[in-house]
Amino acid sequence: MHWTVGRVKITEIIEMETVGSTRFILPLATNEEIQKLPWLILPFATEEGRLKMSIHSLLVETPSRRIIVDTGLGNDKQGRNVPSWNNRQDPFLDKLTAAGFPPDRIDTVLCTHLHVDHVGWNTKLVDGKWVPTFANARYVFGKTEYEHWRDHSDASDKLAVFSDSVKPIADAGKADLVASDAQLADEITLIPTPGHSPGHMSIHIKSDGQEGLLMGDVAHHPCQMAHLDWSSTADSDPGQSAKTRRELFSRFADTPTLVIGGHFSAGHIKRDGDVFKFIAEA
Q1: What does the alpha-carbon distance between residue 96 and residue 57 come to, in Å, rounded to a whole number?
Q2: CA–CA separation, 47 vs 256, rounded Å?
């Protein structure tokens, strides 16, 4: 999928798609509750109320930068809590290359946060060692996010992710730790959106009078726009997560802003009384 925001081009490269089996992440999003939201059906859920979600990367091309936003699960990783996320052998890099984004032509890797499904392709396994996948890129991590996981990755699954997908980048001298509101290019500014993780960031794009928002995991699925209190089981602070959703959705509701989630495709946020809807991009 491709979208444009002024002179900025966005390309979605999907690593994995799922239908259903999402109750572990959004337990309140039952089939019955989803069927009460008809605007979700088919674009974002099945007629039976099963959620459609994906793990994907977004390639953002500005006049001066080639950026990959979030890097999915990766191959050969171990210690993941979801069994199918271990020891994967996915042709993701071949997909990137076929789409015109060979790894050596990416100059910036930008992670909205440092959870398992957003950092996996930061590194690849070469001769038993984890090395940067994007050899010519600088890796941009939020300073708050990086320092949190550096200091609080005691659980075995968190330690595995940090050790194989984040720490090797810092050890290679390729990590740039930035403020959560940093401006990365003329067209790209970060927005602090904590709650899902302590230093979660979203990405605001402005170019030639048009706007885009790459929201990361502020919402895992558009159903959370109608139910702000449906926080993910992976949220570090569910109360802050709901507050962030309301503030971010209010800011971009009823505008022509193109919005893309970390696990769902593009659309526009619309206000409907006290709740929000997400209208799929035509």
Answers
A1: 9
A2: 28
CA-based nearest residue to 61, from 128, 122, 103, 3: 3
How far does CA 47 lie from the centroid of its chain? Answer: 26
In the structure encoding, which two tokens stand for residue 241, read together? 């997560």
The CA-CA-CA angle for residues 233, 20, 257, to 5°, reads 75
The tokens of 79 are what?
């210690």
Copy the structure tokens of residue 230.
Answer: 């449906």
Instruction: Please spell the DSSP secondary structure of 225-241, one letter per residue.
Output: HH-TT---TT-S-HHHH
Q: Round to whole Å and give the CA distance between 242 and 240.
A: 5
Model confidence pLDDT, tens digit, residues 36-84: 999 999 999 999 999 999 999 999 999 999 999 999 999 999 999 999 9
- Decide: helix, strand or coil at residue 84: helix
Q: CB–CB of 258/266 below 8 Å?
A: yes
The whole-angstrom separation of Cα 194 and Cα 201 is 7
Phi, psi of 241 (to 5 degrees): -60, -45
Distance CA 11, CA 3 (A): 7
pTM: 0.96
Contact present, 240 and 199 (Cβ < 8 Å): no
Rounded to whole angstroms, the Cα distance separating 142 from 165 reads: 15
Where do the H-state alpha helices sit in 49-204? 92-98, 143-151, 156-165, 167-171
pLDDT tens digits along 231-262? 999 999 999 999 999 999 999 998 899 999 99
Residue 38: CA atoms inside 13 Å, Cβ hemisphere, count? 0
